[in-house]
Design goal:
Blueprint (H helix, E strand, L loop, with lengths): L12 H23 L5 E7 L5 H11 L5 E5 L5 H4 L5 H5 L7 E5 L4 H8 L5 H20 L3 E8 L2 H13 L9 H8 L1 H15 L4 E7 L3 H50 L1 H10 L22 H24 L4 E7 L5 H9 L7 E5 L5 H4 L5 H4 L8 E5 L8 H4 L5 H21 L2 E8 L2 H13 L9 H7 L2 H15 L6 E5 L3 H21 L4
Parallel strand pairs: 1-3, 1-4, 2-3, 4-5, 6-8, 6-9, 7-8, 9-10
Helix pairs in contact: 1-10, 5-6, 5-9, 10-11, 10-19, 12-21, 13-21
């Protein structure tokens, strides 16, 4: 593979200056267009030491407007970073839409170093590369432009470059013992790099091999590759944006009409939305297997509830002391009791140990990133408990049913979510996912109670009634969600919620039981 980069190509200063005069203007104009675009740009620089990675990054910051560029160079992870899944720091550093991210020693560096120094075997290396490929595919599928440059030098050329830099008083700081140690393993680096490039090169995140001997040739190849890719991607983005605008306008019209009907024909709409259960479609879903008649009488509940809370408090305290991290996800029907269940958990645990994150519509900053970005960045440190009141499953529930996401977006979200959750559990996080299920008749009863209670009326909105009218569509979406994302390491717990006493005890008991099992396993 690398023989294509061993051409020792050079370009004269005069030729470089002639090309550069217009090239910089083109790139600045494209960067201006990019600022209004709906995608970010990620440029990753990998390669052999001394091949010009940092020089390329410096040149891009010089030629372009650095206000819209974020540059990241990674060293060994900090303690805060080690307490999260490996890719947490890369998700943290993703550029927003309209910006350019430059990455030195990015997500390939550790994988290749570990393989060269035999800290991983071939199977582990391939698994790491597959994880990288999934990460890049997730971003590319969301529209990101990803360009990857392997800056290359032959073994003899690299030796001369390192020696030259080391002998230059102004440049000697660039060369350290680790560079020479890596050079001695040149062949192993090239073998690992070739496998990495072949396994992670596809149409959505291509590698470009850059022969790094001549600085001017190297610079022009990087700059023209970026220019040409921006031209193509901006054109594709404009087409996609125009189509999305038409679709969003149609969706907005439909929702506005539905809300007007709610105001005009509230009583009739309630009935058609399922006031009488017999009017609801009898969909065959996994939720149909739940026994909603399960209940706990008030007298028994009080005794069991106190014992459950005491046991949870003791177990959660031990988990905090031993550094066990947990993430809890609560999803369910409107008025199913998510808020009450969360309150019973948090009331049982030291307030310094937990945080509740309510998920609503994304902010402007969150919309400027991939939909998983706002969840990745929230992942807790060791020993903490994070509770999501609604979550990333909005992509395959409300966004699917309400057409906020296109079919291709929510259909691929299942695998994106599974990968996200796998990275959490592989890191050692206890991930618990609860779906609180109630019947349509019970939901209607709770809606009417809220309507009659002055302190709870704020909880009931026109949107709740409108969503209720789509009970069958949501039921089908929940079935697919559970079927496709209930994995061995992150299964769904389906909670029979018609009786709040039973539901709360089941949730408290499940959490305590899973914390105990986690504590009984050896901690990595």
């Amino acid at each position: 593979m690398f023989e294509t980069a061993e051409l020792r190509q050079r370009i004269s200063r005069a030729a470089f200056d002639a090309i550069a005069e217009n090239l910089r203007d083109e790139l600045l104009a494209l960067q201006t267009q990019l600022r209004a675009a709906d995608f970010p740009v990620l440029l990753l620089f990998a390669g052999v030491d001394g091949a010009g990675k940092s020089e390329a990054v410096n040149l891009l910051n010089e030629w372009l407007d650095p206000r819209w560029i974020v540059t990241h160079a990674y060293e060994d992870p900090s303690r805060e970073e080690r307490e999260r899944p490996e890719f947490w720091r890369y998700w943290q550093d993703l550029p927003a839409k309209g910006q350019i991210g430059l990455y030195l020693s990015g997500w390939y560096s550790r994988a290749i170093l570990d393989r060269v120094y035999r800290q991983t075997d071939q199977a582990q290396f391939d698994a790491k590369l597959d994880q990288i490929r999934n990460f890049e595919r997730t971003l590319a599928d969301d529209g990101a432009l990803i360009l990857k440059f392997w800056m290359h030098l032959g073994r003899a050329d690299q030796k001369r470059r390192l020696k030259s830099l080391g002998e230059d008083p102004k440049q000697s700081w660039r060369v350290g013992k680790s560079d020479w140690r890596n050079w001695k393993r040149y062949d192993k680096f090239i073998t690992a790099a070739e496998r990495a490039i072949r396994r992670t090169d596809d149409g959505r995140s291509r590698w470009t091999l850059v022969e790094g001997l001549d600085a001017r040739f190297r610079s022009l190849l990087v700059l023209t590759t970026l220019r040409d890719a921006l031209v193509r991607h901006l054109a594709l983005s404009a087409t996609r944006r125009e189509a999305a605008k038409i679709l969003q306008d149609e969706i907005a019209k439909v929702r506005a009409n539905e809300l007007r009907l709610i105001h005009r024909r509230r009583g009739a709409l309630e009935k058609s939305a399922g006031q009488d259960d017999q009017t609801l479609p009898a969909a065959q879903t996994i939720l149909g297997s739940l026994d909603l008649a399960l209940a706990v009488d008030d007298a028994s509940y009080q005794l069991k509830w106190r014992a459950a809370r005491e046991e949870l408090a003791k177990t959660a305290h031990e988990a905090r002391n031993k550094g066990v991290t947990s993430v809890l996800v609560f999803e369910g029907w409107d008025a199913a009791g998510k808020g009450g269940a969360i309150r019973h958990i948090t009331a049982s645990i030291d307030a310094r140990s937990w945080q509740v994150v309510p998920i609503g519509p994304p902010s402007d900053e969150e919309r400027a990133h991939h939909y998983l970005w706002r969840f990745w960045r929230r992942l807790p440190r060791d020993g903490r408990m994070l509770i999501f009141d609604r979550s990333w499953y909005g992509r395959v529930l409300v966004e699917r049913v309400e057409s906020f996401a296109e079919p291709a977006e929510w259909q691929r979200a299942y695998s994106e979510i599974n990968d996200f959750e796998q990275q959490m559990t592989q890191h050692g996080i206890l991930l618990l996912k609860f779906w609180l299920h109630i019947s349509a008749e019970e939901q209607y009863r709770r809606f009417k109670q809220r309507e009659a209670n002055a302190h709870k009326q704020w909880k009931l909105t026109d949107e709740d009634w409108r969503n209720r009218a789509k009970w069958a569509e949501y039921q089908s979406a929940v079935h697919d969600m559970v079927e496709k994302t209930s994995t061995q390491n992150a299964p769904w717990t389906l909670v029979e919620g018609n009786d709040k006493n039973f539901a709360r005890l089941k949730i408290l008991g499940t959490l305590t039981e899973q914390l105990r099992k986690k504590l009984a396993r050896p901690q990595s």
